Amino acid sequence: MTRRIIEITGSEATDFLQGLVTNDVSKVKDGLVYAALLTPQGKYVADFFLVPAEGAIRIDVDEALGHMLMQRLSMYKLRADVQLAELPVKVRRGTGTPPEGAFADPRHEALGWRLYGEEGGDDGTRWDSIRVAHCIPETGIELTPDTYILEAGFERLNGVDFRKGCFVGQEVVARMKHKTELRKGLATVEIEGEAPVGTAITAGDKPTGTLYTQAGSQAIAYLRFDRAKGDMTAGDATLRLAE
Questions:
Q1: Where are the domains of the chain?
Q2: Do 142 and 210 meet the contact criterion of CB atoms below 8 Å apart?
């Protein structure tokens, strides 16, 4: 787990982020806030945690997206009283009793805590097993530039707030929210055998979805729900929706 920390300061820092990201930035006073930045077309750009800091808000983002996110934020900043800086802060995470100063992961209680300081790494928890069991997507695996965040479970993961007002891509997200039901999305499946991440899933020879993270006898899959009935195949593996 390699993360990048971006610090945002200035008198307009909160308002600046509030108009961009999917969650309510004011909640950061109570702890970590999980959120995303989207394109105007409502597709995923980056997911991250907003971290409270004295006189600032920090963004904890995957290292692979850090430079790009810094560029995007700089582009949106315009003349706002906002300053952006990268910090040499590291992230440690774990489950069990949290150390002093740690924050609860807001996505799911099973994901434990995150601590910011001079030491990085984790406590050896089997993170993929937790993610698969609770269908929690990961940056760069289940979350890609083609992702719509509601199909990825962001509402269930406390990553979007529909009462906060506008954000980039909000109209598309709101339209998906008010559909009767999502026709596609991530789900946990039971799986026999193995197949690489990205393997196409079929049911009765019809394209049905894509296989992602596998942990033991379960996996995360992106599925077209009307076809995800009974046994499905992904390469040499057989799978079905988890009960």
A1: 3-177, 184-241
A2: no
